[in-house]
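ARCHIVE RECORD
Type: protein–small molecule complex
Small molecule: zinc ion
Source of inputs: curated submission
Record status: active
Notes field left blank by submitter.
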Amino acid sequence: MALTSCPACSEQVSTDAKACPHCGHPFGTKTPDGREKIRWWLVLLVAAVLGAGFYFYWDRQMDDARRNGCLDAEQWAEDELGIPSNPEDC
Ligand SMILES: [Zn+2]
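STRUCTURE (tokenized, with ligand):
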């Protein structure tokens, strides 16, 4: 049985004690703080969802830009319609 000092009153307390016998400061119930952990997981989850959402939005915007790209249109016109492409027009 080891002794530790109470964080509240600095008296020597057994590490097996559930609470400080001198001041009643509770041990073991505060660490680990489950609610605090869950809060951090929620922050991480929200950050991940926002990051993924932004990534997919940005990726779609890039796809649209590529689809509507002038060079692609020129290439398509050349391939499909036989019109000579002129990238300088873009
Ligand atoms: Zn104490």
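CURATOR ANNOTATION: Strands lie at 3-5, 12-14.
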